[in-house]
């Protein structure tokens, strides 16, 4: 990725910058347009901070009508658009382009409706993930998907990346908790998909939009499912002498028919970093740590905890601590939630990866990562959603040492190749963005990728929305629409063509 290439800037767009800025100010008056270089610096990168690019101009709309007019204007004048939420993306999904309008949705930050009877909340895309839970917790409700960045990441960004979190094993990813969206298409048209109802007929366009990384439209409103808090929730800290034993324990817990509310795993470097940072009470004499949360009626939770303890002992667990209060349970999770910033204290830089594997392959992949660590001479701290196999290896490096960033990227690419080789996928929740763009052929063949691009063409024929992301090579829509003629003969010539 060090040789990262972005779409070539349109000279005509750059030459018209002053005119474009003036036109956007007509649409979004006041302080809604940012064009000064120093002020745009705040938007030059997302969470993948190794790569920075100033946008053509930044625009912060406040109404759906403004979003619609901006997109229609850009469509009519062939101006590229990069949507952005809170900018916490770790795959470069919100990385600006030098000739593109950066459409920032952070001012869409209101909760529009809370419907407890139907157990839904209607929110604008700039509302933070944690903000939804805080708005409903006084009535005993919460929003289940909880990424580690939940205090900052926006619900619109969660939809774009299909974010998960520690509780996604039992309660699902964003896709399982979003019931409807309002979105603006690149031509300015505003449409609704889904709603308060649990399902709708026709094509699953809502599922298509969730995880589409800003390539198909701009979300302007989200209807989410809210859940009642369980009667009881308790967490168990289980320490193991090896990551392989911890990984096998994960497989055995699921194999026993137990679906924990959350099940996370950390290895020794991550455990020590998190404990030094948060003082959560983690054991420091283990190589791997599982945090297993059971929730539901108290009698059921007690029974499941006993089962988990037994399975853990069979897999060689040396430590087993059960939370005895809500404060202790939250302390256990505080260490896990703070693992990323905690690791930042033990290394000048780290590269956060995201891949997903079948649970049964955990021991094999963890062993493979150790071998890769020795090969590249870089340390790696592992923090991941063990229950659904979503790995988050943190590769430690020093960007001030020439070549170390490139080495970290090569290490990360090999981890993702390993994930695909064992039957996994390139991403679980961070998205492809620019980070994994060149690795897409590892998972998809040319036919697969062309079909995905056809979907892109159906929504955005001019390729104006977030170009340069996800696809290693983007064909023109007209190229994909051509019929293939072999030796003068059409395929299936008997089929009527219109």
Automatic annotation (TrEMBL):
GO terms for molecular function: FAD binding; oxidoreductase activity. The keyword Flavoprotein applies. Pfam families: FAD-oxidase_C, FAD_binding_4. Its cofactor is FAD. Residues 51-229 form the FAD-binding PCMH-type domain. It comes from the Bacteria. This is Glycolate oxidase subunit GlcD. It comes from Paramesorhizobium deserti.
